[in-house]
Amino acid sequence: MTTTALPQDPPERTYRMTAPRANTTPRIVRDWLAMLLRSFGHREIAEQARLCASEAVTNACLHTRVERITVEATLGRTSVTVSVDDDRPGWLPSPRPPAAWRAERGRGLALIRAHAADLRAVPNGDGKRVIFTLTYGEAA
Question: Whole-prediction pTM value?
């Protein structure tokens, strides 16, 4: 019997998920991302990642016309970077006063900013890619 050694863990791994723009998509994406982080031993940020991913995907569902939402998660040695593609051009709105504590909308980006080490948007075809990074391990 011959055994082949698996390669050492690469410095980063990228996973991609594509889903329809639907009411269930934010839940599916947040569960997928949390499972991915737990699988690689990063339980400490799984809930933060769930919250941030849910907000970013919900924004894509509510504020764009995109038929499919693509989410990419890149796990590095000290962080996970998550991107959400949409078809709405333009940058993230400037920070504005926080929404009233009872408001049902308007707090998504503020929640991501509160948890993420980085939040940005870059042009991507006819739309943009919203990207956030969460740190773990010694970098956190």
Answer: 0.80
